[in-house]
Amino acid sequence: MKDLVILVADKDLEHTMKGLLARPAALGIRAVEADIFVEPQHDPACARQGVEFISNFSRQYRHGLLMFDHTGSGMETTDPRELQNSLNERLAHSAWGQRAKTIVLAPELEVWIWNDSPHVDEVAGWKNRNPGLRAWLMDKGWLQEESVKPARPKEAFKDALHEARKPRSASLYEQIAKKVSLRRCKDEAFQELKGILSQWFPAIPRGSER
Predict the structure, then answer these.
(1) Where in the sequence is the domain holding 26, given as residue range(s)?
(2) Does any domain span residue 41?
(3) Which of 17, 24, 30, 113 is the most buried (most CB within 10 A)?
(4) CB neighbours of 40 closer than 8 A, spacing ≥ 6?
């Protein structure tokens, strides 16, 4: 059996997970063999039928993950935690049992991007620009002075790329995921993802490798 199958809502999340899983030591896990599928109908389809999709792989993989944004899922009137718990309950009653979990990103993936790492500025095309990225975000109204992250993270990221004349592509997400300190991201869903992965794929103690 392979280690992990993941169903994600779009290419941005696919590349984010590729970048993260390329850094097992930073995640505190062993190296993981994973296959990632992208749902062509994006977040709404993941919310509605993602459980059924990944249930088809329960005999081929040790674990499964279903990941999508709360915003744009068509389930915005449902609290993201309640939605996640509901999908996890469905997974628990599927062939997976407790071997698969759901991560609902609230409001959306880009909330993981926004931290004070200089790598974010570099990848977004803001290295050595004046004003700096954070000052520009506040000037444009994307970021409140007392806030750490923009309230509308996806739109803020798109606007920042446009301002820097940086072409938007899914590969940017992978670059950020491979570079930033994972300790900087305090988002609840990200911390939950780390906890799930460390439980499923604990790091191999030094000296025990063969």
Answers:
(1) 2-109+172-200
(2) yes
(3) 113
(4) none
**Within the chain, how many helices (H) and strands (E) appear?**
9, 4
Examine the domain organization and report whether 97 and 147 are in the same domain: no
pLDDT tens digits along 77-107? 999 999 999 999 999 999 999 999 999 999 9
Q: What CA–CA distance (Å, rounded) separates 96 from 141? A: 45
Q: Is the pLDDT of residue 206 over 70?
A: no
As a whole number of angstroms, the distance between CA 11 and CA 14 comes to 5
Domain annotation covers residue 188 = yes
Residue type for 121, please? D
Say if residue 153 is in the same domain as residue 116. yes
pLDDT for 17-63, tens place per residue? 999 999 999 999 999 999 999 999 999 999 999 999 999 999 999 99
**First-to-last C-alpha distance (Å) of the chain:** 20
Residues 19 and 95 in one domain: yes
Question: Which pair of tokens denotes residue 185?
Answer: 């991201």
Cβ neighbors of 114 (< 8 A, separation 6 or more) are: 120, 148, 149, 150, 153, 156, 157
Q: How far is CA 28 from CA 25, 63, 83, 209, in A?
A: 5, 17, 27, 16
Give the Cα separation of 176 and 171 in Å (integer): 9
pLDDT at 159 over 60: yes
* Half-sphere exposure in the Cβ direction for 78 (13 Å, CA): 16
The first and second tokens of residue 118, run together, are 């200089």
pTM above 0.90, yes or no: yes
